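Operator note (shift B, R.M.): manual run for Acyltransferase requested after the automated queue skipped it. Running by hand, logging everything below so the morning shift can see what happened. Input copied straight from the record, untouched. If output looks odd, do not overwrite the archive copy; leave it for review.
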Amino acid sequence: MLTLERFVERVAQGIVSRLARLRYRRFLEVGGPLSIGRNVVMRSFQGGQEGRKSQLRLVTAGHNTIGVGVVIQGTGRLFLGEKTFVGDYAVIGCNAVITVGRDVMIAQAVTIRDTDHAFDRTDIPMNRQGITTAPILIGDDVWIGHGAAILKGVTIGTGAIVAAGAVVTRDVAPYDIVGGVPARVIGHRRTDDSPSETAQDAESRT
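Run finished. Output pasted below as returned.
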């Protein structure tokens, strides 16, 4: 049963979401229902190896949720598949391309960044050495736990789980469970009762 309190909460969230979509419309390409929480920040800033000004783009497939206090920033393109949500206070830094599949659960306080500061030289402060970027690909049905960090150039396969607090610096095979700093395989979702792996899944594990 829908209580009055819950009804008021839903109405308020709807208003917040519509206002946020209006405020950030220049960044958005919306393919279906999209809920945006309170205090979300989307911003473009100077970036790229050429130092040019580019426009952040967030492309959503539909039935997506962006939680309270999420920060999405950069000069790249972020794609969210259908029924994927971004948990409260997550930070996504996108200066290249970040692609997230369908039915992905991104928990609270997760960090996803396709960018690093350059730091090869010691005669110049690191904040003046520019950045390096590499695309991130997150497959369908992935669960990224609370406080995990996904770093540039990583591919996370379909059905994988990233444990809370893990720092992912290299690719994760489909259905693997990874944890730790840096993240390593600590388990695998497949069992004898599970459907057999597809050829694509098997190839990615070799």
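Quick read of the result: Residues 25-204 form a domain with the UDP N-Acetylglucosamine Acyltransferase; domain 1 fold (CATH 2.160.10.10). Confidence is low (pLDDT under 50) at residues 47-52.
Leaving this for review. - R.M.
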